[in-house]
Design goal:
The chain is mostly beta strands. The chain folds into 3 domains: 120 residues; 98 residues, Sandwich (Immunoglobulin-like); 100 residues, Immunoglobulin-like. It contains 1 helix and 22 strands. A hairpin with a 2-residue loop joins β18 and β19. The protein binds calcium ion (2 copies). One calcium ion binds next to loops.
Length: 330
């Protein structure tokens, strides 16, 4: 718009003094609107101009001092010929995650306060994390507990519950503060480890003046069942890589797992085919071309293929590793 105005003035009004001068809008030209997306606050500023001869070269960045937020924009007016068309220019400021409270937002131009608006940020959950998930409270030393952490934008009285899918409360904790860390050992209130399954975590509470914050939910999975690895075959059981032959390692997984497959001879590692690869429930065929990790064809002999399978909750398939042999011919 401004370049159009510039062209018009140059062509139509030869020799006229054209310039951009600082401009300070009036309050009724400025519209301020606050909203939140999740826990992040935004402020949209819309300025209405009476013609095309205005520009905002810099919207400024928001500065927060206590409960006051200010932005300072640089706005220009063109002194040449312009089109008398109402134009709007807008910008949205990301105010970030604000502590609970009431805020005064002031829009300034060239250091002059133009318009202010107040808005409230209620207390709320900022983060709610459960990790590891799934976990396996079976006492084998791997992922036996899960850690639930949460943070709030104010000190709150919180309550955390573990519930069944049908809403029965199995375990609960409460406290006061702006963060929480709970290590759940998979036991209910009576100390009994809950059965495998998917449970609901419910985080609720209120700020210190009693105003409740929005309740948040998360799912957590208890899985103590080791994965089943079936139909483990190596086909063919002998092959000659110097002739371009390969062999295939086949297996079927009962659930999503991390898989490592390594090939050894006399205890020496020759080839890593998979290393902690995440694979979903399916049948797999992994090809070995008879080469080592450097790409050279391995010496003839009998090799051991070791397959380590662990599910996401840390349960290991038995045996660990699963072993098969294959003969390399030359
Ligand atoms: Ca475990
Ligand atoms: Ca499992």
């Amino acid at each position: 718009m401004s370049s159009l105005a510039f062209n018009i003035s140059n062509i139509v009004v030869m020799g006229r003094e054209d310039d951009w001068i600082p401009y300070v809008p009036s309050a009724d030209q400025v519209d301020l609107k606050h909203w939140r997306e999740d826990s992040t606050s935004f402020m949209k500023v819309v300025i209405t101009f009476s013609s095309t001869g205005y520009d905002v070269s810099d919207w400024g960045t928001s500065t927060v001092v206590g409960s006051s937020i200010a932005v300072n924009a640089e706005i220009w007016k063109y002194t040449g010929i312009v089109l008398p068309v109402v134009t709007k220019k807008s910008h949205t400021y990301d105010l970030g995650i604000l502590q609970a409270g009431e805020y005064l937002f002031t829009f300034k131009a060239w250091g002059f306060s133009i318009k202010s608006v107040t808005f409230k940020v209620p207390s709320m959950v900022i983060s709610f994390i459960v990790r590891p998930n799934p976990f396996s409270p079976n006492g084998d030393g791997r992922k036996d507990t899960t850690t639930i952490t949460a943070s709030f934008n104010a000190a709150v009285n919180w309550q955390l519950q573990v519930r069944t899918q049908t809403g029965m409360v199995l375990r609960s904790w409460m406290g006061t503060g702006s963060t929480l860390t709970i290590i759940w050992d998979g036991r209910d209130a009576l100390g009994v480890v809950v059965p495998d399954g998917v449970y609901k975590l419910r985080l609720s509470g209120s700020d210190l003046s009693g105003v409740p914050f929005k309740t948040r939910w998360k799912q957590v999975t208890v899985d103590t069942l080791p994965p089943a690895v079936t139909d483990v075959t190596v086909n063919p059981s002998s092959f000659n890589p110097t002739l371009g032959e390969t062999t295939r390692i086949n297996y079927t997984l009962s659930e999503s797992c991390y898989i490592s497959i390594k090939i050894y001879k006399s205890g020496i590692l020759y080839r890593t085919l998979l290393k902690n690869a995440l694979q979903t429930t399916a049948s797999y065929r992994i090809v070995w071309d008879g080469r080592d990790n450097e790409g050279s064809i391995v010496p003839a002999g009998t090799y051991r293929i070791k397959i380590w399978v662990v599910d996401i909750a840390g349960n290991r398939a038995s045996p660990y590793p699963i072993t098969r042999t294959v003969t390399v011919l030359s």
